[in-house]
Amino acid sequence: MNEEKVLEALKKSGAPMKSVEIAEATGLPKADVDKAIKNLVKEGRAESPKRCFYAAK
């Protein structure tokens, strides 16, 4: 569930985002965003183009 919200925010932004920015955009706690990002990266649906920034694949 949270993964889908995070992925949607990343797709809408069109640019790499920090987890704090994703938390603000989704209304989710940062800890939940961090967990969702970790899962999305592991599943290959998101990537980290540079340190501490994340983008949808």
Descriptive labels:
about 55 residues; 3 helices
Topology, please?
Blueprint: H1 2-13, H2 19-26, H3 30-43, E1 46-47, E2 55-56
Helix pairs in contact: 1-2, 1-3, 2-3
Query: What is the overall number of helices?
Result: 3
Rg over alpha carbons: 9 Å
| Class of secondary structure makeup | mainly alpha
**Main beta sheet, described?**
2 strands, antiparallel
Low-confidence stretches: none
Integer average pLDDT = 96
The amount of helix comes to 55-70%
* End-to-end gap: 18 Å
Strand order of the largest sheet: 1-2
Strand content: 5-15%
User: How would you spell out the order of helices and strands?
Assistant: HHHEE
| Count of β-strands | 2
Described by the principal axes of the CA atoms, the overall outline is globular
Can you walk through the features of this model?
With 57 residues, the protein is mainly alpha-helical. The chain has helices at residues 2-13, 19-26, 30-43; strands spanning 46-47, 55-56. A hairpin with a 7-residue loop joins β1 (46-47) and β2 (55-56). The longest helix is centred in the middle third of the chain and has 14 residues, at 30-43. The protein is globular. The model has no long low-confidence stretch (mean pLDDT 96).
